[in-house]
Amino acid sequence: MSSGSEENRTELLGELAQELGQLKGLSASFVRAAAARMGVTVTDMQVIESLTSSGPMTAGQLADLTGLTTGAITGMLNRLEEAGLVRRERDPEDGRRVIVRINPNTDQIRGIGPSFDSIGEALEEQIARYNDEQIAFLVEFLKRSNAAARQEILWLREAPRNEENSYSAPLGDLASGRLVVSSGITRIIVRADDAMDELYKARFEGSVPDVNTKDGVVTIRYPRRLWVMSGGQGAVEVTLNAALPWQIVIQGGASEITAELSGLNLAGLEVKGGMSMVTLELPAPSGVVPVRISGSASQITVHRPAGVPARVHLKGWASEFIFDNQAFSNLGNDVRLQSPGYEATDQRYDIDVSSSVSMVTITAD
Description:
Distance between the termini: 55 Å
Radius of gyration: 23 Å
Largest sheet: 10 strands, mixed
Number of domains: 2
Number of helices: 6
Strand content: 35-45%
Helix content: 25-40%
Mean pLDDT: 82
Shape: globular
């Protein structure tokens, strides 16, 4: 294979992983919206949607699907049955088994049906563009991806938890730090601690990445996987020593990114790649702090301390956009906004959003 072909394949694989990650995020957002409409939890909605689309299942099958224990799924089914959303009955083909069915006669179930019908019709319209051979390829790919996802769910549920998945590094005489999290994973949480002795601490769930620390630069790099839509990469929680100024870069995408940075001396923050939900709790700035967000996302929320001015440059597009007390719909195409007093202070945030987003909220608490 030529170098050009290798580069092209690497680029294509990267684009595929990003699109699959975005698909996962958008699917999760749809389930959250449907759950809110019905007044149930997201996991409840996952069970209801699975029973609606795939038909009756056993409690064990639902436990495997959701990643819950059999005890937890039993409690959920008790609650859903009491609410009249599902019913349990003996399997007519095997009286030893109990199967769970959706109860289609409730107002809640009837109300959510049109929403799933609508997205189903949209998918059918897209599928009509492909021939039988292409559809067969997609079916095979999805079957393999779903099988891999099921195996990873079982592994995450059954694997023992220990300190082997925890990393740290000494603080030494470092004057600054830089955190780089590379390649897509399910969930990233970054926090700050002004009482810790180490440079950082990191704890991982699921796959353990390559972790390197050199000259104050902490690099966490996950291998790229094509079935990132399954969430198989796991999660990472990183705590940074708040005594140092930090540059933070999160790239390659993730389903959920949460940064709780109160008390941190933040020098800059960059988030890029396909994402579902991004929540940034920014600290009081010590200067002009750049925040850069790029890549498709479902929801971006940025909180800054009260009284801290900010300027935002929306280079992408947002269905809903809230900046302090201003609300906009279908906003985009190079929009600039700033809070009063922005130019008059040296402690402020300069925020760029180069994303296509369902909802952006930038507020001061």
